[in-house]
Records
---
Amino acid sequence: AQSVTQPDIHITVSEGASLELRCNYSYGATPYLFWYVQSPGQGLQLLLKYFSGDTLVQGIKGFEAEFKRSQSSFNLRKPSVHWSDAAEYFCAVGAPPGRRALTFGSGTRLQVQP
Amino acid sequence: DTGVSQDPRHKITKRGQNVTFRCDPISEHNRLYWYRQTLGQGPEFLTYFQNEAQLEKSRLLSDRFSAERPKGSFSTLEIQRTEQGDSAMYLCASSGLAGGPSSTDTQYFGPGTRLTVL
C-alpha cells in the first residue's frame, strides 16, 4: 500500500524568505503526486500535481515542486514567502489504477513571521 | 460553477443521534469522494462513487456509516448512532469529466462539514 511522510510537523519562516516543505512517498510504480493547502477551518485547495513528464512542476501562488524518483520525494518550494501563505500543507499520492483514493501525509503547518 | 459545496458547514449533535451531510460536486464531474479528517491529521479516504455506483469503501466506513448518490449528482453521508470518536471534519471531493481520461483525475475538495459529537 502507498504511504506519504511529511517529516516536518511545523515550520516557521520569515516573510520574504524561501521555503521548502518535504514529502516522501512509498509506492511501487510511477506515482501521481499532489500538494494541497488548507487554511484553518477550510477545505483543501490544489496547489500543483505531477502525473508524468517534466519533473519540475509549477503551481498556483508561485509554488513549485520537484519529483525525484531516486529519493522518492516530491518537495514543495517557494522562493519568497508571503504572510498569506501561512496554512497547513498536505502532500498526497494517487491510487493505483482501479482505485481512486488519495493517501495523504499528516501535513506541515507553516507559520510566517513578519 | 463555484466548486464543490457541502451542507451544513458545522453540526453539533449528542451521542447516539443520527446525522446526515450533503455534498454537491462540480456539475460536470462524474466521480465523488468522501474523506474524514481528524485534528492534526491528513484526510483519510472513506468512499468513492462513479455516477450513482459506490465503487469503493474504506474499512474506516463502519456499519453505522452509509453514503448514497442516488441520481449521480449530489451525495449524502449518514452516520447513525453517533459516537464521540466520529467528531471530525468530513470532506467531499469531485473529479472526472465524463468521457475524459480517468488515470489522471484531479480531485477538487469542498469546504467540509465539521461534526462535533457531545
Note: The first strand of chain B starts at residue 5 and ends at 7.
---
Amino acid sequence: SQTIHQWPATLVQPVGSPLSLECTVEGTSNPNLYWYRQAAGRGLQLLFYSIGIDQISSEVPQNLSASRPQDRQFILSSKKLLLSDSGFYLCACEEVMNTEAFFGQGTRLTVV
Amino acid sequence: RKEVEQDPGPFNVPEGATVAFNCTYSNSASQSFFWYRQDCRKEPKLLMSVYSSGNEDGRFTAQLNRASQYISLLIRDSKLSDSATYLCVVGMMDSSYKLIFGSGTRLLVRP
C-alpha cells in the first residue's frame, strides 16, 4: 500500500521568506498528486494537482507554485511568503482515477 | 456556486442519536464520491466510498442520488468517538481528473 511522507510537520517562517514543502510517495507508480491548504476552522482548498511528471494544474492564483520533478515527488514552493499563506498544507495521493486519496500528515505553516 | 457544498454545522447530538449529513455537487459529470473524516488538527482519512447503489459499513450508510446531485451520510447509534468533521469529496473531470473537497460538517456527540 502507498505511504505518503510530508515534512516538516510544523514550520514558522517570517513574511517574505521562501518556502519549500516536499511530499514523497512510496508503494505506487504514476499516482495523481494533490496539494491542499486548510485555513484554521475551514475546509480544504485545492491548490495544485498533477497527473504526471512536470504536469501541474493550478486551481487558485496565488504566490505559490508546485513542481513534480520525479514521479513520486511533489514540491510546493513560494519565493516570498505572505501572512495569508498560513495554514495546514496537505499532500494527497490517488493511485488510480476514481479511487480514494490518501493524505500525508500535513505541514502546519505559520507565517509571522 | 461552490463545486461541492455542505452544511458546516455543528451538529450537536446525544450519544445514541441518528444523524444525517447531506452534500450537493454542481458538476453532473462527477464520477466518484467519498466521505472522509477529519479529527482536529489531523489529516483527513477515508471513511467510505459512495456507490450508486448505496453502501453500508456498520453504523454508517452512504447514498448517492445522481439525478439530484447529492450524497448523504447516515450515522446510527452515535458514539462519542464519532465527534469529528465529515468531508464530502467528489472526483470530477475538468481539464483532467481532480478531487474536490467540501468544507466539511462538524459533528459533536455529547454524553
Note: The longest strand of chain A covers residues 44-52.
---
Amino acid sequence: DGGITQSPKYLFRKEGQNVTLSCEQNLNHDAMYWYRQDPGQGLRLIYYSQIVNDFQKGDIAEGYSVSREKKESFPLTVTSAQKNPTAFYLCASLTRRVGGAEAFFGQGTRLTVV
Amino acid sequence: AQSVSQHNHHVILSEAASLELGCNYSYGGTVNLFWYVQYPGQHLQLLLKYFSGDPLVKGIKGFEAEFIKSKFSFNLRKPSVQWSDTAEYFCAVNEAGGGNKLTFGTGTQLKVEL
C-alpha cells in the first residue's frame, strides 16, 4: 500500500546525543515536511523540501537538520543543540493535483530524551 | 512569513449546540486551505479542504467551512455537535505557488458535554 512510514514509533535517547528520525514515502510526492507537535502549540514546521537536494527551514529549525538525497526519503536529525527535543514528530508529504493539493501524514515518532 | 491563527484554544459546548471555530491566515497569495481533526489518542484526519470555486465547502461528519478571501479566513462550522466530536481541530494553509509551505494553526481543543 502507498503511504508514509516513520520509524521508529518510540525513541529514547540520552541528553547530548544526536538522533535521526526516519521518514519514507512511496507516494511519489515531491514535497515533504517535518513537524513537531507539542500540547497547546499545534504542529510547528521544522523543515520542508520541495524537491530532491533542496530544503528550507520552517519556523523552528534551530537544533535540527535534514537531508533529501532521494525523493522517497526525508530524514530528520535532532541534534544536541536542540534545547527541548522531547516531543512528537510528524512527517508529511504533499502532492499537487488539478485544482489543489493533498497532504498525507506518517504515524509519528515520539522522541523522549532522558 | 505565512502564519495561521486559531483564536479559540479551548471550546466547551453542550450536545446539539452549534459550533464555529475561527481560522485566519496571513499569506497574500493563492492558498489551499484545510481543516484536520485529531481525536484523543488518534492521528490527524482530514475533515475538509478548499482549493478553488465555491467558497463554502462541505466535509465529513457534517462539518463545513467558508473561505472569505477578503478576511483571510476559513472558519469551520457544524450546526449541531455531538459528544463524539470531542477532539482537537487544526486549520492548515498551503501556499499554492512558490514555496509550497504547509503551515498549521495552534489547534482548538473542543469538548462536547452530554
Note: Chain B has one domain: 4-113.
